[in-house]
Amino acid sequence: MTATPDLGTHRLAAPELFRSVFRRHAAGVAVITARGSGPVGFTATSLTSVAAEPPLLSFGVGNGSSCWPVLAEAGHVGVHILGEDQRELAATFARSGADRFAPPTRWRSGPADVPLLDGVLAWLVCRVAARIPAGDHHVVIAEAVAGDPSGSGRPLLYHQGRFNALRE
Fold this sequence. Notes:
Elements: H1 15-22, E1 27-28, E2 30-35, E3 39-44, E4 48-51, E5 56-62, H2 68-71, E6 76-81, H3 87-94, E7 107-109, E8 115-117, E9 122-134, E10 137-148, E11 156-159, E12 162-165
Antiparallel strand pairs: 1-11, 2-3, 2-6, 4-5, 5-10, 6-9, 7-8, 9-10, 11-12
């Protein structure tokens, strides 16, 4: 017989507890981009593969994010998987108020006029399929329609509130 844990001891209702638990979860680092009147983008650690047929992924974006108004209307988004040598790029796209597409960021317009970052491990252009309200965020589900997995190197990770690399 298994003992039932005392659920009153630790309550997940506290946002601080929730964040502290997820700081222990290592996540890959991606940059999501879209185009409105200009390019927008943000660093995401919530990227998830949803299905292979059709090829669907999801990511979360805060309702208060400066990118949300564009993402709320965008038909397509860019998803960029960052390499371990791209900590500064990840930090730039995570920084509020930064001109994220100014030099030294290198980028170009890709399929569906989506801003594509140069030098990443891999990228996808995705058609937005759904936007689902989820608390103070929206979950965006998108279908991959183009991409390139040919970058080289190892992935950038986010763990314990910092960007990290894999260790051998």
